[in-house]
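Assemble and predict.
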Amino acid sequence: MLLSEATTTGFDLFSLVPWIVFIPVIGLLVNLIFGRKWNERIIGIVASSAVALTFVVSVLQLIALQGNHHEAHVVPFVDWLSIGQFHLPWEFRVDTLSVTMMLVVSGVGTLIHIYATGYMWFDVRYKEDLKSYRRFFIYMNLFIAMMMILVSGNSYLMLFVGWEGVGLCSFLLIGFWFDRNPDTTFGDKNAFAGKKAFVANRVGDFGFLMAMFLTFWNFKTLSFTELFPDAVAHYSGDPALIWWITGFMLLGVAGKSAQIPLFVWLPDAMAGPTPVSALIHAATMVTAGVYLVTRSAPIFNAVEGVHIMVATVGAATALFAATIAVGQHDIKKVLAYSTVSQLGFMVAAVGMGAYVAGMFHLVTHAFFKALLFLGAGSVILAVERGHHPLIGGHEDEHEPHDDEDHHELFDPQDMRNMGGLRKRIPWTYWTYMMGTFALMGLPIFAGFWSKDEILLDAKLEYPVIYWVLVVAAFLTAFYMGRQVWLVFFGKPRHHASEVAKESPWSMLVPLLVLAFLSVFGGFMNWPFEGGHQFGHWLGYTIEKATGHALHVPAFDWGVAIPATLLALLAIGISWLIYGRNPLKTGQQDPLEKALGPIFKGMHNKWYVDEIYDFLILRPYQKLAKFFAETLDWNIWHDWFHEKGIRDNFQKFTRFLADPIDLGVIDRIANGLASTVKNSGEILSRLQTGFIRNYALSVFFGVVVILGYLIFR
Amino acid sequence: MDFILEPLNLVTFFPLVGVLLLLLLKNEQKKIARWVALVTALVTFGISLWVLSMFDASNPGLQFMIEEDWIQVAGWKIKYALGMDGISILLVLLTTFLTPIAILSTWKAIDEKVRDFQLFFLLLEMGMLGVFLAQDLFLFYVFWEFTLVPMYFLIGIWGGEKRMYAAIKFFLYTMAGSILMLLAILWLGIRQGTFFLPELIAKGGIPADVQFWLFLAFAAAFAIKVPMWPLHSWLPDAHVQAPTAGSVILAGVLLKMGTYGFVRFNLPLFPEAAVQLAPTMALLAVIGILYGAAVSYSQTDVKKLVAYSSVSHLGFVILGIFALNEQGIAGGILQMVNHGISTGALFLLIGFIYERRHTRDFDQFGGLWKVVPVYAVITLIVSLSSMGLPGLNGFVGEFAILLGAWGAGTAGGPLGTPLFAAFAAAGVILAAVYILFMFQKMFLGPITVEENKNIKDLNWRELLVIVPLLVFIFWIGLYPKPFFDLIGPSVSHLVEMLPTAVSTVLH
């Protein structure tokens, strides 16, 4: 191997690691500065190759790690700041954990960028805003750079810089079509969704900040190298401290990884273009919380009981979101709640201390959920193209249909408008099925192995969590079954689905690659003899940090078989409801009829948004209004200052002036009082000689003083 | 002649050269007046850079010291003393940096009595520089009061509809505080036999109960200037009425005179009182942070929103200062600069749109991004810096402040509880709420008002005004080390004076 030789002959591959941040930055700058006149192809190539190069550098880091016996390597970059005893260098940390994240982010990122070059070509035309193509890729490259800062930083503060940075990109990309509603009419729903995401994330960031302050003042450092294992291992033994740190960190995780109680922003985030949903709101950014917990493993391990707190939040989220996913009609909303639910699985896993299982699921989920979102994007685009062919577009000119369609409000994301699409868009259909099987957890597909590992760890140590997750997994298979029957089977329920068009190759190739990974990706942690490669690989980092060997439970048929049977059962039920008698145009969802108010609750997300609105948002708005108008203005400004101080002062001066008749005071007081009242009159007086005299006297005063000093 | 060429004399009084030239002009000679003012301000900026190049960052003490006997009557020893250290250098640079920018922003906006306007502006710059450099209490007071006069006229003549009301309120309100400070200065000077600050600090020996009252007297002047909650009632009036350039300097520099005063005078002169009163000050600061954020959120006028946000932002600065540790104070000083840059930029941006649409009402905007993308992106960057996004300047200061405040809240620290830091950090969430609200109202969503469809994007002059600010927003945000290195040694030196105070209070 040439590259491994390179490492031995002295060239240090690790020194390349800063480029994972700078290549995407260069990509975005190139498009920003020169892209104005470029056509879409060049812009897309620049952006995609920037991410692809980042992937190459990430692979080089992998090679470098192999050459370094998997020992973590820290590459100092700059001295960022130091105040008193607080020193913060910006260092890149290359270890098996960070490289895993780098590979996922840049690998999946590259595929999604390629996909987006095709998808956005259509999207900007449907939104009639061609200029936004460049804007989109600038944001996307910025996101990759921020995500890389997040995963490669060697301290909590650098992690936080990336953490908020990706939040910004998320805000920008959710509100990408900021002057439109999801149904492309003019409005600002998308902008609202972006703001909601940012604020919910900020609530989480508040927790992160608190955790950082506690960490710093108790361990005197934020650097991972210094914290783990030494500082934390020798902590004084104050369990309350660990509870506070992990509790605040969990709030941060809840914000970024959409856990209860802060998950509400993620479903709304689907307002962003679909590649964004795939990249940011499924595969990478939202998993940052899982990464954070894994990175902080020694802290979470330090006190008994912390695990159960985190795992409970994760498991509750997994189940809660899965129920909501059952009741959605929007193809992306189903996937969104599914993502919340799957993130719950991961958080539950890392919460239980099953870091490998959690990270493993993070990786496989990145494959199959990115695939599903991109597939959904392909479905939506196909329907949209069927509904409203682009004049002069790729191959859309033909197949005219009646014009009336253009005027009705048509939602290309509503599954009730779909049906029978497997024949119209076979490539999308087949790849989508691979992702679906992986998510359902059917054997040999990637999701099976990772979910199985989570369930196994849960069963051994936290039976309650195990049962909650099993139910969530059952629901997962059910809502995915429902979705597939509704979208791909039966007969088209809308003209648009009848004439839907398969997407271009730029979109299909990423789907194929991801489908491959969704099928075979699970073998990276083959749970039998001679396997567990991924576990060993991560173990180099986690074991070193915690100082304990990772516990690797043996494969248990007692977990795998029931889980598989349950998934099959769920598919069967979904077939009974949606597959046997396909939904007809205009027909009510059979589940809606059967479940009644329960379906309504699921469909309306159990009214969590409304509850937050009632409990938090509206009271705050009222309070702010009360502060601003009543307290600050009417009372403090007008009543106290104007009425209380000014008017009484005027009365007082008049009292001095009139009865006592002191000439000097009389003049000043009236002067003051009338100035306030008759500003116009005073102003005209000012305009004549007053200012000049005043200014001159000020000036001469200064000159005299200076003159005295100079010439004395 | 040598005396004039002392670096600090040059930097402080160079604006007077421009004033002299302006006096020779007539009000009708607008163009020349503008150029004279701009060139003067630029040269002043150049001089300040020259001073920076000679500044020894590793030296915590006062540098370029000028110390002359000035007035000696009846045992009063008043000195003419200027000096610069890490606490003041960035504020001096901020002043000389913002002044030419503000002047350039008036090119089109100020068209009446141009000469007088520029004249007052340069006088104001001189006054502010004097405030940051004076090392004698009496001289400081002279400069402090002096700044009131040009600002009064800037608001009162070139302001909005209720300008006289706002100008007088500004003048009287700040003067009321200053008078208490003057009494305290006189008491100190007479009792200690000197007004010279380094001498006063070295002498010390003021009993704790007396310190308490002196601290409060100084604090009265500074807290009104900042303004700290609940003494902020003059600020929205002054900001809303002031012309754009006036608001820029008011928010950018004038308010910092208050926070600077706390660091320069209250901490070293009354260390025991500072420790004793730190929780009170921190409490007011935190109330200001949350209250300012809430009140901002409910405004319908953009300028008023930004005005109230200053109450919130400067609450952070005060909190940092009264954390009484290196992180807090250094963060506070850097945050003064950051607020000057970000809020200055916001006022400039509001001025740009006001010149086009003659309104600042949220309901009159919406969807502007599509019409004026460059303006929108710049506003977004400045807004994000204002809400403390990492990578931009606001975060660095806020983080250091909160870190310091938390440290001051750990066992044995002057604040006693980390709750101050926790509530202040919650203010970071509220900042996102009102700033994103503002941004969304103005730039996102569809265009709802017909007039907005034909607004022109920023022109070259406006870009020239705003881009230098953006450079610092990024520079401080991405690589804050050089800035902290300038501040650090002087702050460490200041903090070293305080622990003794901590121990005396504790026992």
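The beta strands of chain A are 73-83, 86-94.
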